[in-house]
Amino acid sequence: MKKSGQVVLSRRLQMLADMVTPGNSVADVGCDHAFLSIYLVQAGISPRVLAMDVRKGPLAAAREHITGSGLNTYIRLRLSDGLEQLGEGEAETIICAGMGGRLMARILTAGEAKARRMKELILQPQSELKEFRAFLRREGYRILAEDGTYEEGKYYFAVKAVYGGAVADPEKRQGEDVWPWKKRDEAQRQDIFDEYGELMLAGRHPVLKQYLLQRQEKIKGILEKLEAEDSPGRAKRASEFRRELEKLEGALTEFYGSVCQ
Fold this sequence. Notes:
This protein is 47% helix and 20% strand. The chain has helices spanning 11-19, 35-42, 56-68, 101-110, 112-117, 129-138, 170-174, 186-196, 198-202, 206-228, 234-256; strands at 2-3, 6-7, 26-29, 49-53, 75-79, 93-99, 120-125, 141-151, 154-163. A 7-stranded mixed sheet has the order 5-4-3-6-7-9-8, sandwiched between helices.
């Protein structure tokens, strides 16, 4: 979206732009219509952007928007399947958004050497976020920051990650004992951190709390309907939803101090 020649981003794209380290060159993977790429240059955040997409249609639209904004010198377009056509030294930051977590994991795996060289990866999976966080952890990426927003009836969560390096101590980073779950089994702790985001919980992020409360009400409604059903698999489904409810209510109680609004 443009306003008086300046791009105005949606909340989810603005969240990504705010996570970019100023001065870094950026590879915008899955650039779509290139509004984020244009904003990064217009706002003086990035000196140059490589806008990449696997589809010719979005790239054609991106070219039109970039030309209209007069930024052809600063933003280059490239047809690329993931990181395939990203050259060495062309970017310091990779932004990847607008796709599911499994696809994003495949992109990072296929372009592993390139992804690991980046100063930062800014990633916004649209689904499978728990599995994607676990993927990053297993592959040796360290999450530096997390953020979330709510827009048009949907929650969006993003992470900034880097490959390797010492894992920061969240308790020391926060300057207080923020981990009420630390006495629990390590597998339980890791499960909830993968599910909801260790740094989101540590910071008591308000959007995460909103999400947890909304999910809580949805699960309660589902359980009420299941109680009235007499169908195959009802007991198993109800048990799964009860386990999820217990986990998210534990997060609300132990990190936010409440299980209700």
